[in-house]
Write a structure and sequence with these properties.
The complex is a heterodimer of chains A (335) and B (374). Chain A folds into 3 domains: 161 residues, no CATH class; 45 residues, no CATH class; 103 residues, no CATH class. Chain A contains 16 helices and 6 strands. In chain B, strands 2-1-3-12 form a 4-stranded antiparallel sheet, with no helix packed on it. Chain B has a 4-stranded antiparallel sheet with strand order 6-11-10-15. Chain B has a 3-stranded antiparallel sheet with strand order 8-7-9, with no helix packed on it. The radius of gyration of chain B is 24 Å and the shape is globular.
Amino acid sequence: MLKLGIKDLVKYPFLAEAGEYLRETGLGLEQLGEPDWKPILEKAYGRIVVASSGQIYSPDMERLDNDSEILSFIVAIILLKSASTGTLTRRFSLAEARRAEKYLQQDLWVQKDKKNLELPLKIIQELFGIRVSVENDEFVIKIPDYLRRSVHFHEKEWKLVNRRVADGLVYLTAHETVRLIRTELGEYINSKIQSISIGSIPESFRQRVQDLILLAKRFSDTTIVSSDYPPCIKHAIGVLERGENLPHSGRFLLATYLLARGQTVDQIAPLFKNAPDYNERVTKYQLEHISGSSGKGTKYQCPSCDKLRSENLCFATPDCDGIINPVQFGKKRKN
Amino acid sequence: MLEKNAILVEGAFKEYYFNRFDFIHVPVKANEREFGYQKINSGMIRHLAMKNDKELHLLLMKEIPSDVYCSNAYYSFPNLPMSEKDWKGADLIFDIDAKDLALPCRKDHTVYKCTSCNDTITGHQSECSKCGSTKFETISVSCNNCISESKKEVSKLIEILTSDLAIKREEIEVYFSGNEGFHVRITSGAYETLGSQERADLVDYIMFNGTVPETFGIKKQDASKVSLPTTDEGGWRGRIARNLFASKAKTLKITKQITSEGYSSFQLKLEEIKRTMGVRVDPKVTMDIHRIFRLEGSINSKSGLAKIQCDDLDSFDPFSQACLLGHDEVQIVANCPLPIKLKNKKYGPYYSEPVSLPKYAAVYMLCKGLGNVV
């Protein structure tokens, strides 16, 4: 366990020690529901609203009240859990991860003060199992630890061949070290929120929970207005039903579209039965490959309308209504 | 393969497997690996589990496979279908094959076999002089240059693995593949849980693929401000510096030259470096975390040579040390228009002529499709 100061908990309230802190204060959920604690509830609600708009909640560290910072994070989690909205929880987790990332980077920068450096390195090690050591002005991690994270970035600078490597280690700046774990940090916070269980919440919380449910609806930006297939898909199915040859690109479109609509490989495979060169084993293999369940694990996305036009697979009708990808067909933006 | 050829080849393989049990062992973590095999003229049988040497030897005797494979991966349930195996990790493996090296010697040891009349010729022709067919099968026969060039790639690979990836030399096993290349297997646990994408990036590192001038201190925008790596650095930066500044006295001159030539010129230089200094491995093999890889000690049916470990790479002669089939003479009609050298003896060229050859040489020709049993 880390020995943390209260300022550290303000920066990293998702650590287990924050729960410890709450226990030490002796505060229960019921008490937090009392009118005296209303400012905490409002602060918590504010944190979620800020996060939902894609911004990072960043109070002035010097002036703030440590207790209310930590408590508002905990209350925010309770509100999110009660509202049980995946969208808001994900947005909140990502925003909190980016907020923590900022502090982690700052803490890594202040290298002269050994105490400061110890904390962020320990957080990275204990939460994500990455041992980071410091060599001169750089942060050093093992190649496998690096690769497991860097492969998710597409920029060439993250390729191992473009890093400084020696003796099984990769050399990084403070910014790069923290950037490497951003996604995991978000996932960690998200999973923490998912894993907690709460009983009944104080009456005074209910209004804000309702507000969050309403807020979440604003973010679920599409509603399904038609379960019909888009014309390109109808065309592809038609070709196959007639036993004609659908080109590879057309088969790829059909498979990726239906997978995106939630159909399984077993449900999709029979569609190809009429194809002149049908082979059950090959079809299944290819569908599994496209779905990401075999091969490199890459899940292929449905090609864009632009691409389909260039492949002569687009048969747009007015119903397409300006969509840019077939998977958007039949869904409408609410605002 | 013709039935009469298959009988001779199978007989030779059986004799080898029976006499050399001491040579054929299951690898470590055997009961977590998937095994597979092929028989002459039939498909692959895989998803098998083997607990120990005894079970493996039994399979070899019972089935007399033409090729035997074992996964580099470890699973909880190696004999279940792929999706249910529960992948736990996989050895890091590399395949260096002479055919991927585009060597100039290639044309000198390639036989072209007409796919319709089976006539063999050396040197490329657009059509068969006997039957006029335009389709040829290309068959590569033993070549010492291919082996020595492949060895150079193995040495480059070992240098990168030990110095950049911190893999100990004793954790690197080098095998002759049984045909015309080498297999390298890493026994260190540090890399065994890496997935396919991670291995793909690792292989790019080893091949020096996808690098950009910025990595070596040359910017697109401010091309006049270069900060090239120094020779004492580790990894590719140091390696490139040592290549650029081979002569210390010329460091300043070379730096000035690189600066004046600019970004795109350096990019071309990197491409050139990739061709000469990058290790030419087959990336697909390293990326594949479910591959079944030829089992050490087993015979490769492309040649009749065995996949064996090379203790001393420099002095290793595969055409002698991996040539482990029987010596007794057999009669075949050999159609091998290029001489081959096995166990330090030259055989051929033969032009559709009946010859009496030691079994290992006869099987080599049958496996290559350059002869038939009388």
